[in-house]
Amino acid sequence: MPTSPFSHFDRHGQAQMVDVTAKAETLRHATATGFISMRPETLSLIVQGSASKGDVLAVARIAAIQGAKRTSDLIPLCHPIPVTRITVEFEIDGRNSRVACKARVETFGRTGVEMEALAAVSIGLLTIYDMCKAADRGMRLEGVRLLEKGGGRSGHWQGD
């Protein structure tokens, strides 16, 4: 059977955790982004800090950090990684009635932190949804993607 182009499958097509034993430990980083669109009234509740569950963005920031730290518990074949730094930023976009989230994750290790950055953004945005769903069940998570990654054998990659 031919070798799979996907590293999480062995030559027999069985799921596997990628072997990173021979990889060098290097500084690795990844940045991801995404946004949640909502009604202008809902965005106003977030900006004014008057959502019934409290400071939405403060809670979402903590959730995003926790999401990055717990990625290997959520994604079955991810390695547990000793994350050394996580930053999470939110930006209010009143014109488009949405909140953007950007997360950067860093580690010194044998494998990258792309999944951790993507998990941070996803969990941060899901937390905003959870905290505001009573006011707006039609919110949409959109555009979650990797912006950049660096370190390791494959070097630097930057998205469009």
Report the β-strand fraction as a percent range. 25-35%
Tell me, what's the shape? elongated
Radius of gyration: 18 Å
Quote the distance from N terminus to C terminus.
Answer: 35 Å
The main sheet comes to: 5 strands, antiparallel
In what order do the strands lie side by side in the largest sheet? 2-3-1-4-5
Mean pLDDT: 90
Please tell me about this protein's structure.
- This protein has 160 residues and is an alpha+beta fold.
- It is 29% helix and 30% strand.
- The chain has four helices and five strands, in the order βαααββαββ.
- The chain has a five-stranded antiparallel sheet with strand order 2-3-1-4-5.
- A hairpin with a 4-residue loop joins strand 2 (83-93) and strand 3 (98-109).
- Helix 2 runs antiparallel to helix 4.
- It is elongated.
- The two termini are 35 Å apart.
- The model has no long low-confidence stretch (mean pLDDT 90).
Name the descriptors:
160 residues, alpha+beta, 4 helices, 5 strands
SSE blueprint and pairings:
Layout: E1 26-37, H1 40-48, H2 56-69, H3 71-74, E2 83-93, E3 98-109, H4 114-132, E4 140-150, E5 157-158
Antiparallel strand pairs: 1-3, 1-4, 2-3, 4-5
Helix pairs in contact: 2-4
What's the gist of this structure?
By secondary structure, the protein is of the alpha+beta class. Helices cover 29% and strands 30% of the residues.
